[in-house]
Amino acid sequence: SMPSEMLMKIFSYLDAVSLLCVGCVNKHFYHLANDNGIWLKIYSSCFKPKRAIWKMKSEQTETVSLGCAALHDRKPGYWKKEYIFKQVTAVKTRVMRLVKAVDPYTGLPCKNKEAMKASGLSWIVVLQDKNGKEHVMEKANLSFKDTSVTILWDSTNWPCLDILSTLKLFGVTPLLPDQSRAPSKNGPRRRSLIAEYHLANLTESSVAVGADKLVQLFRLNPGLLVGLWKEKNEIAFVMASLHYHQLLERSTLGSATVQYALPPNKPVLDDIDPEYGLHDYNLHLDMHGGSCTYLCGTFKSLFCRKGDIANGYLRLTVVSLKDNTKHLPLIGTLGLSWETDVFKGNVKDCYVMDVTLLDETGKPFWCFSAPVYMELSSKASSLYDYMGHIYTTDYADSEGKVCVELVWLEETKEYFIVNLVLYISTKKVNNWYGTNY
């Protein structure tokens, strides 16, 4: 019942974020909050004026004449859109400047963490029950590594697993990032769908990767780990491993319902020949368990000959059983750490593997970050230098496979990687180069 003129006077004192929130109350507030006079005041106070009309004092902008060129014949909301467009463009420019420099070892931007902070990027988990109701999980702990970020959500208020149908992972950015303060979860934000997982028959349809006294871990591809309480069969925590390659794009450029589609590779002129195989590939490998790093290494000049192509895969041997000079020790005992408000634990023989494979031009070719597990092999060690048990770790997705063999040395209490092989799908290679292996 308050007169529109009085509401307009109140709205004129609001900042941009508050004005956008007020516009969501109802249709009447939306139309009033679109007023060009209010938004021109905000626009001109934030951006350097280019016309004489914008050089007026703030008191004058409150009573801008309707015949003013900046307001006349402009549709309601014009200056709001202009302001938002300029703010978004300014943030994108800052982010692009930060990701310009590339690490020669990983082929990824050096300042990923700073770029994410500049964009105000965060991640949320949205659980949808069978009735369509959404449960949003905001609170998350972040752990940054060389090539990935690990995100852990814990809550004392997870919905019952039996009523849930899907889990969606979103990247969230504020519509108007403010570098001076943390983004408010109640402010206007954009959602970008990263991945969607179906939770029906979770324990039967997903890969079990380990357990401790309190929780069981299940992997949902790509890169998601769900911890279930052993006694209650309820969610204890959710952990996502996100590789930096295309992370900003996936987390900001998708919509709330459609994932961002990666652009196709544009192959350069080269001597790519199925008779010759791949050459000059580089691998950056990280193995970690949350806060602990077990291995971080770069392997250069990897190649694949014609004889290494079989069963739809091209084989790249990184560490060979036959060459013990390249066998690698791991630092510490493998395990994946987790923590909630009340409990914490460590699941042994489970860890996160980050693979960054660069092609001969140094461009990221195959990248992933995923929780994996190690299991005891049935075969005995045939290596003269090692007398311990052999363990294996295997990972596979639509683009390739990773096979790792490790030996446990009881004397020194450490694991050694004695065999590490990548298998790249010929379909992936053909799509990348436009060839036919």
Fold and architecture overview:
Strands 13, 14, 15, 20, 21, 22 and 23 form a seven-stranded antiparallel beta sheet that branches. A six-stranded antiparallel beta sheet has the order 3-4-10-9-8-7. It folds into three domains: 1-45 and 73-100, Monooxygenase, CATH 1.20.1280.50; 108-174 and 188-251, no CATH class; 281-433, no CATH class. It is of the alpha+beta class and 437 residues long. Helices cover 19% and strands 36% of the residues. Helix 4 (36-46) packs parallel to helix 6 (78-98) and helix 6 runs antiparallel to helix 7.
Number of domains: 3
Low-pLDDT windows of residues = 52-67
Characterize the biggest β-sheet: 7 strands, antiparallel
Rounded mean pLDDT is 86
| Count of DSSP H/I helices | 10
Q: How many DSSP-defined strands?
A: 23
Quaternary organisation: single chain
Helix content: 10-25%
* Structural shape: globular
Radius of gyration: 27 Å
- How far apart are the first and last residues' alpha carbons, in Å? 73 Å
Structural class: alpha+beta
Strand content: 35-45%
Organism: Charadrius vociferus
GO cellular component, one term: SCF ubiquitin ligase complex
Domain F-box: 1-42
Protein name: F-box only protein 15
Compact overview of the structure:
This protein is α+β, with helices and mostly antiparallel strands and 437 residues long. The chain contains ten helices and 23 strands. It folds into three domains: 73 residues, Up-down Bundle (Monooxygenase); 131 residues, no CATH class; 153 residues, no CATH class.
Key words describing this protein structure:
alpha+beta; 437 residues; 23 strands; 10 helices; F-box only protein 15; Monooxygenase; seven-stranded antiparallel sheet; six-stranded antiparallel sheet; 3 domains
